[in-house]
Inverse folding.
């Protein structure tokens, strides 16, 4: 049974089968659902975390480098994480980042955009120092409804090996 | 005069003097104020953006890789941006990232932590293709109250040159 906390499915269920290091292979791809970003949430997120005029105010944004209201890149990153957590990429023990090789926002996110992510496994390797785990390198591209990439993130994720308790690991 | 929107100072005032490319030099450092992260906000941020048990639930977190409730790294990143926007690093035209060279979370952020950032300019270079602007590379380290680094971010920021309108630029 999937458990729900605040409407968010966080565990259990057939669709939640956790994957161990041995289950990942270079070339695998994982899609996601969609999430819509509204102008009001762009502004309230920015007021709390990135209070710059081009994320807060339509008029100020028109005269900025963004030429119109744009979401904070950190808002895009946070929504990408939501899509990723709910995608079929399900490392046992959770999505735990050990650092990033690439991270950029090639195109602004606008009010009303519908975002989705595509993840591709580009490397799988056991840990030399920790036999119970390994790392996978995943390129996660966030697209808008026009198919434009709004974020590219290459992450190194800690993944337990089958037979471990799924929770060991370095931080 | 500084203007305030929702309690957030977003422009004007002596302390807000914008800096152009010519004002930045390798070795300059910029501190910040402090911000406290509460357990309830860790959980509500995670429910919206990173719904994994170790960010949502104290009991589940104890048995996870984090060995206790930890903030989503994206929450840490967003709070770092808030501290950075309100720090004395004030590029004319705003803090606009053109990509990152390094990004990692070496230590978990816990409920009640008090975060601050230190930024160091490590490179300044004019743009070859856009004479009205340049890039600065800045290492921003986020520290907790014990002086432990919880995030390291090396950003490339777009900065206008003096005499430009401060808003030109590629995106």
């Amino acid at each position: 049974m999937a458990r729900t906390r605040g409407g968010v499915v966080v565990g259990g269920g057939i669709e939640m089968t956790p994957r161990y290091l041995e289950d990942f292979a270079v070339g695998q791809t994982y899609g996601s659902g969609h999430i819509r970003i509204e102008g009001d949430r762009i502004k309230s997120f920015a007021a709390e975390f990135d209070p710059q005029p081009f994320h807060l105010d339509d008029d100020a944004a028109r005269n900025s480098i963004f030429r119109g209201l744009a979401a904070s890149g950190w808002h895009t990153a946070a929504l990408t994480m939501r899509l990723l957590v709910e995608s079929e990429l399900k490392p046992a023990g959770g999505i735990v980042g050990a650092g990033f090789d690439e991270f950029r926002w090639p195109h602004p996110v606008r009010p009303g955009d519908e975002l989705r992510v595509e993840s591709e496994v580009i490397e799988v390797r056991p840990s030399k120092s920790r036999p119970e785990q390994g790392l996978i390198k995943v390129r996660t591209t966030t697209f808008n409804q026009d198919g434009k990439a709004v974020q590219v993130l290459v992450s190194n994720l800690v993944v337990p090996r089958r037979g471990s308790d799924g929770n060991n690991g370095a931080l």
Q: What stands out?
A: The first helix of chain A runs from residue 39 to 49.
